[in-house]
Amino acid sequence: MATAGAQSEPQVQDRYGRSAAGLKVPKHPTWCPGCGNYAIWGAIKLGLEGTKYPKEKTVICYDVGCSGNMADFNAYYGFHSLHGRALPAAVGTKLANHELKILVVIGDGGCYGEGGTHFLNLMRGNHDICILVHDNHRYSLTTGQMSPTTDKGIKTKSTPEGSIEEPMNPMAIAISNHATFIAREFAGNIPKLGSRITEGLNHVGFSLIDVLQPCPVFNPAQSYDWYREHMIQLEDEGHDPSDRLKAWKQATRSDKLPIGLFVKEEKPAYHQQVSELATGPLVNKNIASVDLASLVKDFQ
Ligand SMILES: Cc1ncc(C[n+]2csc(CCOP(=O)(O)OP(=O)(O)O)c2C)c(N)n1
Ligand code: SF4
């Protein structure tokens, strides 16, 4: 009970009139009611906790978009970037301190569109980062334009007569481009997505988890129910994640939407092959004695 004369804390409210009092996060999420980002947010918490890795050695790199707004709602170290650049920021963070676990939170627009070349090239290097793509098949923050994963013929704000382009197939691209951990999961199954995130974070090397995320505002047709009707589980198909050819067949089938672990391969990660990093993380090195002048001269 407040004592006479004591100053009460100011109650900051979000746009739905909710107060953040009692929450263990800095702010309330601002996503629309029914948005799949709420479920993914919950799964990320489970996934990070599942690694049992020290919180102070975990970093989340966020991109632009509705998904990236999560930067305000997590009590983890993070870096908020824009337009696909969360991907190189994640690699830079890992190479500066390879004792960190790195999760990237990014949308399909940011990862497969704006950051598309980063996406392609990080796989080739087997960089040890876990990329979680909130794949709602739209650029949603900017009010629902088509994205690289929008199906052909779909009408959006930027394609009023129906989209002309074929959709990108992220699973097939990752399978053919050396990615060592490739999964697709559904926002509607939080425990399964959570354990997949743990698995992706524990995988040493590049991991991609494409999450089918309902956006009821700009993609109402692909609802929670729609996904449940169209999905099948790779586990039920007896899929072996060490078989890349069978993974390709599953990724390119058009009758159903396979969910689960497509590929898992053990291979040295990029940072494990850089000789300079063998003696410890770069951040721990004493660079005071490094002769930068002669280094700069080499490049002149
Ligand atoms: C150079 C540039 N390109 C595009 C934008 C606009 N932009 C900001 S967020 C965004 C959409 C991001 O979509 P996605 O990554 O799929 O995330 P979502 O909002 O769907 O979670 C776009 C196009 C911009 N501000 N500047
Ligand atoms: S626009 Fe779509 S993705 Fe963005 S917060 Fe709303 S429901 Fe979620």
TrEMBL record:
Which residue intervals make up region (Disordered)? 143-166
Q: Which GO terms describe its molecular function?
A: iron-sulfur cluster binding; metal ion binding; oxidoreductase activity, acting on the aldehyde or oxo group of donors, iron-sulfur protein as acceptor; thiamine pyrophosphate binding
Q: In its keyword annotation, does this UniProt entry include Disulfide bond?
A: no
Q: Where is the composition biased (Polar residues)?
A: 143-161
Judging by the UniProt lineage, the source's domain of life is Bacteria
Which InterPro entries is this protein grouped with?
A: 2-oxoacid:Fd_oxidoreductase, OFOB, PFO_beta_C, THDP-binding, TPP_enzyme_TPP-bd
Q: Which cofactor does it need?
A: thiamine diphosphate; [4Fe-4S] cluster; Mg(2+)
GO biological process: what's one of them? Answer: cellular respiration
State the UniProt keywords alphabetically: Iron, Iron-sulfur, Magnesium, Metal-binding, Oxidoreductase, Thiamine pyrophosphate
**Is Membrane given among the entry's keywords?**
no
Give every Pyruvate ferredoxin oxidoreductase beta subunit C-terminal domain span. 215-277
Taking every annotated instance into account, which residue ranges of this chain make up the domain Thiamine pyrophosphate enzyme TPP-binding? 64-211
Q: What Pfam families does UniProt report for this protein, alphabetically?
A: PFO_beta_C, TPP_enzyme_C
PANTHER family, alphabetized:
2-OXOGLUTARATE OXIDOREDUCTASE SUBUNIT KORB, 2-OXOGLUTARATE OXIDOREDUCTASE SUBUNIT KORB-RELATED
Quote the protein name from its UniProt record: 2-oxoacid ferredoxin oxidoreductase
**Which species is this UniProt entry from?**
Candidatus Chisholmbacteria bacterium RIFCSPLOWO2_01_FULL_49_14
